[in-house]
Amino acid sequence: MEFSPLLRELIQALRCLPGVGGKSATRMAFHLLERDREGGLKLAGQLKAAMEGIQHCQDCRTFTEEEKCGICANPRRLEAGQLCVVETPGDVMAIEQTGLFAGRYFVLMGHLSPLDGIGPAELDLDKLDVLLGREPWGELILATNPTVEGDATAHYVAQMARRHHIKVSRIAHGVPVGGELEFVDGTTLSHSFSGRQPLV
Amino acid sequence: MEFSPLLRELIQALRCLPGVGGKSATRMAFHLLERDREGGLKLAGQLKAAMEGIQHCQDCRTFTEEEKCGICANPRRLEAGQLCVVETPGDVMAIEQTGLFAGRYFVLMGHLSPLDGIGPAELDLDKLDVLLGREPWGELILATNPTVEGDATAHYVAQMARRHHIKVSRIAHGVPVGGELEFVDGTTLSHSFSGRQPLV
Ligand SMILES: [Zn+2]
Ligand SMILES: [Zn+2]
């Protein structure tokens, strides 16, 4: 692309976005240059602000630009007495979007994975331990992923909670609502059977 | 998303990219924050540089950060004596990537579309007229799109070139190489028949 090094570099830089290959990056660059320079400039500013300004909440470790995230800074979220443990900030966002949970979170930023050198220290579980002892929690809800590592992590955190005499629950795993039984994988179906609820 | 306004704004800003909806934008934001802040910052810088720095080449109107693009600034590209007229800078890039064309370009930045108020003035055709008279062109190649507007534009430009006694050609349209005849639309197939070449 002899005609514009800046354009070549923009296309290259867009490829850092997940799922964006050479063709998509080229289409994106031309779209912004031809039709939405204002949007492109705005995106540049928001990217810089987010990459430089977003850190981890000192209480729950989710992403935030403040010392404490908006959830931890809100005293009402503590009143619920529920603490939900998740693997990533994306999990927090997904749960927040359901609008069903009014308690607090602790974000592990991963899961226990001894083979990759990720133990309790890497997940700041000592911080979770302090948090478990500090507030009068009525319930700890484990919402780690239903994977081998997620289950092992849930098991480890559950034992910590029990040492603090806190009631522990695990979110249900099973056939997705609207999903078709015959297309669900065997592991999910097993979870779905073992987690069955009595009909009342 | 009570926990981080910056994150919400980043996700919103990412949606200016073509083909990126709410789910993709969310995935992109988390990917950059969790795994590639350096790439995100680099992208922010390249976006700003491109949106602010890239303008139109004063000779051919393609995108460039210089007064003249790299192609127009290269005297060898004029020696070929060929001028290729295209609709967009993306067309220039596509043709450059074939490596088969050694001449110069003129980019219309659109096509004639009287109903949308796009006439010869909006496409800077007076500038093309000056360019046609200024250099000893051996051939003008029309590479506008094979649409009603692209064909009409090609026809108009061809008449201009003939007034300058320049030989005019149109790139071939037909069944894409590797394409299957039965899946090609009727218009393309008609072009393919009317543009047939004698076998030698
Ligand atoms: Zn927090
Ligand atoms: Zn140029």
TrEMBL record, chains A, B:
It holds the Pfam family RecR_HhH. One of its GO terms (biological process) is DNA repair. Keywords: DNA damage, DNA recombination, DNA repair, Metal-binding, Zinc, Zinc-finger. A zinc finger (C4-type) spans 57-72. CDD domains: TOPRIM_recR. InterPro entries: DNA_Rcmb_RecR (IPR000093), Rcmb_RecR (IPR023627), Rcmb_RecR_Znf (IPR015967), TOPRIM_dom (IPR006171), TOPRIM_RecR (IPR034137). SUPFAM superfamilies: Recombination protein RecR. Residues 81-176 form the Toprim domain. One of its GO terms (molecular function) is DNA binding. May play a role in DNA repair. It seems to be involved in an RecBC-independent recombinational process of DNA repair. It may act with RecF and RecO. This is Recombination protein RecR.
